[in-house]
C-alpha cells in the first residue's frame, strides 16, 4: 500500500511524560503499594537515584520502591571470601540518626562503610535489647571500699578459742600452729570439734563455703586415733599403732578432685602422726593398684561412692569391722549425682558387719567410739539431703557456724547458705552479641595491673564451651620440647587477647570431666602451683569443695543451673577470711529477675559499657602465628577507641573461624585452627541444650523461647546460628550427644540422674544433672527449646 502522505498531530500539552514502570517480582503487597503510590502521585525512591541505595534483595525487581521497602531491611551481600557486607541503606539510616551508636565520632560500626569486602565488622552495638535494670552510680564504689564487710568465714581470735581447749592434744595443736599456720579455729570448727571428740553421736555439719568444714571432721578423727597410742600431752603410752592396725574411718566425696583435696589436707595434718596412714580409691587407675594399697594397710580411706561400693563387693582384704567413722562430704552433691543406691549399699554393708573391739594384734579400741559414727556435711538442707540423713544418720546433732543442736540452728539455715560476707559480687548485664568481647575485656582489665589478680576461674555450662574458649583464647604457638610428654600439653597454654604491658604472660588452663583423670589431676596441680597470673576455664566440676589458694576472681560466664550451684561457684574465692570478687553474666530481659532470686549482699549491678572501656583502653594482643616473631601482633584500628577495638576484635575472631574452615588447614595469617569452627558450632549447640536445664523454680528467668539464637551465635564467633538444630530426631540425638559430655566414671559406667542433660559419670561430678529437674519436665523443656529453634528459622542459613 502506497504512502498517502497523511500526517497525524497529537496535542500532548506542556506536562512532562510519565514513565510507565512494570512491577515484577517481590511480594504482591509490595507491588500493590508501589502501584498505588504511583497513581496517587507520591514520590518514591527509584532504583536509578543517586542518593538512594539500590535494593539488593534478589527476589525483587529494580524499579520504584514502595514505602515498606524503606522500612524492611535488605539482606546482606555475601562476598566471595564468605564475609558479609551490611546493605548501604542501613548505614545511611544510622548515619542520619544522631542517637545511633558511633554517630559523630565515627567510632561505631558506621566507620566501616565503604571499606573493601572482608573488612566490615559485625554490628555489635545495634539491635541490642535494652536492660530493664537502673544501674547504680559507680561513684558509690569508693564508699563501699572504705568500709569493707567483716569476713564471715575467717578464723576466730586466739582469745576467743584455741585448738587445745577444744579437746585436741598439744601435739596436734602445736602442729597446726607452727606448720600449718593456723592459730585459731573457725566458727564451724569450734562448734564441731568438741562434741565429736567427746561424744559418740552422729552429726550434721552445716556451714557456708570456705569455712573449714574439712578440718572440722578430720581433726576429731585424727585426735581419737592418736589417743590409742598417746595421751593428751602427746606422750606415748606404749601401744603400737601402724597402718595394719585397722581401717578406722571412711570418707566419701562426690568427685575425684574433692577426694584429692581431702587427701592433701589430711596428709599435711598427719605429718605430726606419721604412723597413721591414709589412702584414696576413686577410680582413674587400675583396681589392682588400689587393691595392693589396701592390702598394705590403711587407717583412713578416702573414696568415691562408686569405687568404694565396687571394692566392698569384690575386694576381700577390705575389712570394715573396725570402721568407727563414716563421713559423707558434700551430701547434696552426692544425691544430685545419683549415688543414692550406692550410699544405701555402703551404709547397709558397714552396719551389717560386727563391730570389733580389738584388732588382730590385741590392741583394744576403748578410746574409740563404741558405735559407728556418721558425719554428714552439706551447705544446704534440701530434700535430697534430708533423705540422705534418714538413710545414714541416727539421733544426730545439728552443728552450724553459729550454734549447735537446737531450733535456732535450724532457723538459721537460710543465713548459712550464703556467699561469704566479704565477697563482692557484680551482676553484669550484657546483650548476647557482646558476651564474648565483654568476657575478654573483663579478663584483660583484671590482669591490667601486676599483682591485682593472680588467679581467676571462669565457669561455663558445658564441656564443649570450655574446649572452644580454651582453643580460641590460647596462644597459637606451642612450645615443643619435653613439655609434650606431660599430661598438661593440651590443657595448659599461654593466653592471648587478655595480656597487657603489666602481665605479658597469662597462663590458661581448662578442666572438665571428659578429660582423663591423670590430665585432670595434673592440670589442677599446675593451676594451683602456678606463680604466674593464670585463668582456669571449667565446668561445675570445680565448683564444689576445691580450695585453691589466692583465687581472686570468679566469673560465671554461664549462670549456674540453680542458686545452690551459684553459691558454691562463687565460694571458690573469699575463703578463710580472704577477700574476693565474683562476676555473673546475665542478659537483658527475663534473666535480670534472677538477681532478686539470689538475694545477695554486698553486690552491685552494672552494665557492660564500663568493662569495655577499661578492658580495651590499651591495644589487644593477638595470637602470634609466627614462632620466630619477636613481638606478638596487636589489634590496630583507625579509631583507637574501646568500642572500635571491640568491633575489630569481634571481626578478627569471626574471620579467624572462617579461615579455619578453608581447605581444612590452619595455616593462615590470623592463627587459624582447622577444628575451631567445628568447636564453635559444637559449643553453641551445647550452650543451647544446657540453657533449658535450669531447675523448675528458675526457668521463668531462663526462658529458652526468649533466647536470640542469632545474637547468641555471635558470642561464639559465628556469623549466623548453625542450621540443623531441632529439625528432627537426628539433630535431637546430636544435641544430646554434644550438649554436655560426661565424665568417664568407673570404667565408663554411667547413671541416669534425670534432667535434660543426661546421665553423669559415677565418679565424675563434672556436670551432673542439677537437682529438682525431673525427667518429664526436662523433656517438656527440650520440646519447647526445639519449637523455639524451628521458629527462628531465619537464622538457620546454609
TrEMBL record:
One term under GO cellular component: nucleolus
Record flagged with keyword RNA-binding: yes
PANTHER family for the chain: RNA HELICASE
Residues in Helicase C-terminal domain copies: 435-628
Domain Helicase ATP-binding, first and last residues per copy: 194-399
EC number, UniProt record: 3.6.4.13
Top-rank EC class of the record's enzyme: hydrolase
GO molecular function annotations of the record: ATP binding; hydrolase activity; RNA binding; RNA helicase activity
Catalytic activity: ATP + H2O = ADP + phosphate + H(+)
Name listed for the protein in its UniProt record: ATP-dependent RNA helicase
Biased composition (Polar residues): 34-55, 119-128
Keywords for the protein's UniProt record, in alphabetical order: ATP-binding, Helicase, Hydrolase, Nucleotide-binding, Nucleus, Ribosome biogenesis, RNA-binding, rRNA processing
Basic and acidic residues bias locations: 737-749
Location of this chain's protein in the cell: Nucleus, Nucleolus
Keyword rRNA processing: yes
Similarity comment: Belongs to the DEAD box helicase family.
This protein's domain notes: The Q motif is unique to and characteristic of the DEAD box family of RNA helicases and controls ATP binding and hydrolysis.
Protein's GO biological process: rRNA processing
Chain segments carrying region Disordered: 1-128, 718-776
A Pfam family recorded for this sequence: DEAD
Stored PROSITE patterns: HELICASE_ATP_BIND_1 (PS51192), HELICASE_CTER (PS51194)
SUPFAM superfamilies with a match to the protein in the record: P-loop containing nucleoside triphosphate hydrolases
Function: RNA helicase.
Amino acid at each position: 500500500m502506497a504512502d498517502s502522505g497523511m500526517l497525524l498531530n497529537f496535542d500532548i500539552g506542556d506536562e512532562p511524560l510519565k514513565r510507565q514502570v512494570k512491577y515484577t517480582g517481590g511480594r504482591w503487597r509490595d507491588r500493590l503499594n508501589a502501584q498505588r503510590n504511583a497513581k496517587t502521585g507520591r514520590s518514591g525512591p527509584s532504583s536509578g537515584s543517586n542518593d538512594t541505595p539500590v535494593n539488593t534483595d534478589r527476589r525483587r525487581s529494580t524499579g520504584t520502591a514502595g514505602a515498606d521497602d524503606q522500612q524492611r531491611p535488605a539482606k546482606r551481600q555475601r562476598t566471595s571470601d564468605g564475609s558479609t557486607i551490611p546493605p548501604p541503606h542501613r548505614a545511611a539510616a544510622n548515619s542520619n540518626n544522631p542517637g545511633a551508636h558511633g554517630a559523630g565520632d565515627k567510632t561505631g560500626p558506621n566507620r566501616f562503610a565503604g571499606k573493601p569486602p572482608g573488612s566490615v565488622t559485625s554490628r555489635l552495638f545495634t539491635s541490642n535489647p535494652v536492660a530493664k535494670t537502673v544501674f547504680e552510680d559507680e561513684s558509690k564504689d569508693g564508699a563501699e571500699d572504705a568500709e569493707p564487710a567483716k569476713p564471715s568465714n575467717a578464723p576466730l581470735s586466739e582469745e576467743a578459742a584455741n585448738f587445745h581447749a577444744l579437746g585436741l592434744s598439744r601435739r596436734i595443736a602445736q602442729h597446726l600452729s607452727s606448720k600449718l599456720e593456723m592459730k585459731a579455729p573457725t566458727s564451724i570448727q569450734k562448734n564441731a570439734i568438741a562434741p565429736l571428740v567427746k561424744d559418740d553421736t552422729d552429726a550434721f555439719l552445716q556451714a557456708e563455703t570456705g569455712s573449714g568444714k574439712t578440718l572440722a571432721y578430720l581433726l576429731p578423727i585424727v585426735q581419737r586415733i592418736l589417743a590409742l597410742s598417746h595421751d593428751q600431752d602427746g606422750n606415748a603410752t606404749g601401744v603400737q599403732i601402724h597402718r595394719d592396725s585397722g581401717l578406722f574411718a571412711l570418707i566419701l566425696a562426690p568427685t575425684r578432685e574433692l577426694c584429692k583435696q581431702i587427701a592433701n589436707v589430711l596428709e599435711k595434718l598427719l605429718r605430726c602422726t606419721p604412723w597413721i596412714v591414709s589412702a584414696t580409691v576413686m577410680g582413674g587407675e587400675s583396681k589392682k593398684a588400689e587393691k595392693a594399697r589396701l592390702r598394705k594397710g590403711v587407717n583412713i580411706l578416702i573414696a568415691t561412692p562408686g569405687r568404694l561400693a565396687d571394692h566392698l563387693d569384690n575386694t576381700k582384704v577390705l575389712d570394715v569391722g573396725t570402721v568407727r567413722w563414716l563421713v559423707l562430704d558434700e551430701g547434696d552433691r552426692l544425691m544430685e549425682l545419683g549415688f543414692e543406691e550406692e550410699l544405701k549399699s555402703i551404709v547397709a554393708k558397714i552396719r551389717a558387719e560386727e563391730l570389733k573391739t580389738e584388732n588382730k594384734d590385741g590392741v583394744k579400741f576403748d578410746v574409740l567410739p563404741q558405735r559407728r559414727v556418721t558425719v554428714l556435711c552439706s551447705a544446704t538442707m534440701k530434700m535430697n539431703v534430708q533423705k540422705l540423713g534418714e538413710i545414714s544418720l541416727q539421733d544426730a546433732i545439728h552443728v552450724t557456724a553459729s550454734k549447735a543442736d537446737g531450733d535456732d540452728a535450724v532457723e538459721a539455715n537460710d543465713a548459712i547458705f550464703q556467699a561469704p560476707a566479704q565477697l563482692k559480687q557484680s551482676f553484669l548485664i550484657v546483650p548476647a552479641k557482646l558476651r564474648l568481647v565483654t568476657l575478654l575485656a573483663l579478663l584483660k582489665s583484671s590482669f591490667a595491673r601486676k599483682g591485682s589478680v593472680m588467679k581467676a576461674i571462669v565457669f561455663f555450662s558445658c564441656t564443649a564451651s570450655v574446649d572452644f574458649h580454651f582453643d580460641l583464647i590460647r596462644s597459637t604457638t606451642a612450645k615443643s620440647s619435653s613439655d609434650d610428654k606431660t599430661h598438661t600439653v593440651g590443657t595448659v597454654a599461654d593466653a592471648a587477647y587478655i595480656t597487657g604491658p603489666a602481665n605479658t604472660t597469662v597462663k590458661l588452663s581448662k578442666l572438665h570431666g571428659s578429660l582423663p583423670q591423670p590430665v585432670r589431676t595434673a592440670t589442677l596441680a599446675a593451676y594451683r602451683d602456678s606463680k604466674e597470673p593464670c585463668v582456669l576455664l571449667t565446668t561445675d566440676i570445680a565448683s564444689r569443695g576445691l580450695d585453691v589458694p589466692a583465687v581472686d576472681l570468679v566469673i560465671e560466664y554461664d549462670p549456674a543451673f540453680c542458686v545452690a550451684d551459684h553459691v558454691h561457684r562463687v565460694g571458690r574465692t573469699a575463703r578463710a577470711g580472704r577477700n574476693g570478687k565474683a562476676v555473673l553474666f546475665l542478659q537483658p530481659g527475663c534473666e535480670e529477675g534472677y538477681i532478686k532470686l539470689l538475694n545477695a549482699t554486698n553486690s552491685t549491678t552494672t552494665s557492660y559499657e564500663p568493662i569495655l572501656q577499661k578492658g580495651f583502653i590499651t591495644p589487644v594482643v593477638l595470637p602470634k602465628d609466627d614462632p620466630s616473631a619477636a613481638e606478638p601482633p596487636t589489634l590496630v584500628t583507625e579509631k583507637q577507641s574501646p568500642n572500635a577495638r571491640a568491633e575489630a576484635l569481634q571481626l578478627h575472631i569471626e574471620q579467624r573461624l572462617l579461615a579455619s574452615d578453608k581447605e581444612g588447614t590452619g595455616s593462615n595469617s590470623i592463627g587459624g585452627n582447622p577444628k575451631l569452627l567445628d568447636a564453635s558450632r559444637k559449643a553453641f549447640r551445647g550452650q543451647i541444650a544446657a540453657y533449658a536445664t535450669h531447675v523448675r523454680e528458675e526457668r521463668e528467668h531462663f526462658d529458652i523461647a526468649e533466647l536470640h539464637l542469632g545474637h547468641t551465635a555471635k558470642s561464639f564467633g559465628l556469623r549466623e546460628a548453625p542450621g540443623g538444630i531441632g529439625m528432627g530426631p537426628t539433630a535431637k540425638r546430636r544435641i544430646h550427644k554434644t550438649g554436655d559430655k560426661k565424665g568417664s566414671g568407673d570404667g565408663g559406667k554411667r547413671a541416669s540422674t534425670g534432667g535434660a542433660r543426661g546421665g553423669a559419670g559415677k565418679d565424675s561430678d563434672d556436670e551432673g544433672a542439677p537437682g529438682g529437674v525431673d525427667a518429664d519436665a526436662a523433656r517438656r523443656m527440650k520440646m519447647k527449646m526445639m519449637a523455639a529453634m524451628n521458629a527462628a528459622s531465619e537464622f538457620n542459613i546454609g
